[in-house]
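QA checklist item 7 of 12: single-chain prediction sanity check.
[x] sequence parsed
[x] length recorded as 64
[x] structure emitted
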Amino acid sequence: MAIEFCLGNVDPETRRRLRSLPDAREATCLEHCGHCDAGPFLVVDGNVSVGGSHGAVLDGAGER
């Protein structure tokens, strides 16, 4: 599972969690500004996934 995330959209704790995953890639901007302004989101396998928190999005994507 490939995960992409915007540096400006994740908090430091989530950033550490994402950086520990082998298939996670951080970017300055993923050009999903509408999602970024609205709240937590990640791009999982090319699809935008949103949730109440980044942890919820990760858990929903199967990361444990």
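[x] summary fact logged: The radius of gyration is 10 Å.
[ ] second reviewer sign-off
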